[in-house]
């Protein structure tokens, strides 16, 4: 692509977002399946439905622009999803794994918010008012998803994960004490 107009850059940004969202539609069910917390599982499932709506909004924008949404792979999202898949493949304490899933999901949300904010600003400058409104709607939903993940983490999962750390340290100390006392 030749970067010689804001409109071309805008369309490129939209294609990047479209690729990111379609990749996420495939990744979210895996994250929901791995989550042990019912609330986290539900948040992933709810966001999957929202993400499908984001894809539809982008398709509407492309239709208005008389452009095709395909033709680009979002490498940033691909990398973020690969990092998330590393968490999915891990074994360990459920609360700690849920905390890791939240971290991976929030990195995705922040990436998307940056992209949607940029695209919305481009749409506004190009006089694409309907597109700017649609992009803002998605940006708002991404922000809400991020806030929901923070609430889930702060209201339980992080506490449970930290409690597991303390219990493990206590087990290790007790185990060490037994070894010391058995030598006497």
Give keywords:
mainly alpha, 86% helix, 184 residues, Ferritin
Element-level helix/strand string: HHHHH
Domains (count): 1
Class by alpha and beta content: mainly alpha
Distance between the termini: 75 Å
CATH architecture: Up-down Bundle
Description:
The protein has helices spanning 6-34, 38-65, 75-88, 94-125, 129-183. The protein has 184 residues and is mostly helical. It contains five helices and no strands. α1 (6-34) packs antiparallel against α2 (38-65) and α1 packs parallel to α3 (75-88). It is elongated. The chain has one domain (6-157): Ferritin, core subunit, four-helix bundle (Ferritin, Up-down Bundle), CATH 1.20.1260.10. 34% of the residues are buried.
Tell me the layout of helices and strands.
Layout: H1 6-34, H2 38-65, H3 75-88, H4 94-125, H5 129-183
Helix pairs in contact: 1-2, 1-3, 1-4, 2-5, 3-4, 4-5
Quick description:
The protein is an all-alpha fold and 184 residues long.
């Amino acid at each position: 692509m030749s970067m010689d107009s804001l409109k071309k850059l805008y369309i490129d940004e939209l294609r990047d977002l479209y690729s990111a969202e379609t990749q996420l539609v495939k990744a979210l069910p895996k994250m929901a399946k791995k989550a042990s917390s019912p609330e986290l599982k539900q948040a992933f499932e709810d966001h999957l439905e929202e993400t499908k709506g984001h894809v539809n909004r982008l398709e509407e924008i492309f239709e208005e622009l008389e452009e095709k949404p395909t033709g680009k792979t979002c490498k940033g999202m691909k990398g973020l999803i690969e990092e998330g898949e590393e968490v999915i493949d891990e074994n360990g304490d459920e609360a700690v794994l849920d905390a890791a899933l939240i971290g991976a999901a929030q990195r995705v949300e922040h990436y998307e918010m940056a992209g949607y904010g940029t695209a919305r600003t481009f749409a506004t400058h190009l006089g694409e008012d309907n597109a700017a409104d649609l992009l803002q709607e998605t940006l708002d939903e991404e922000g809400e998803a991020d806030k929901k993940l923070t609430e889930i983490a702060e209201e339980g999962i992080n506490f449970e994960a930290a409690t597991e750390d303390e219990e493990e340290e206590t087990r290790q100390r007790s185990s060490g004490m037994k070894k010391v006392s058995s030598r006497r």
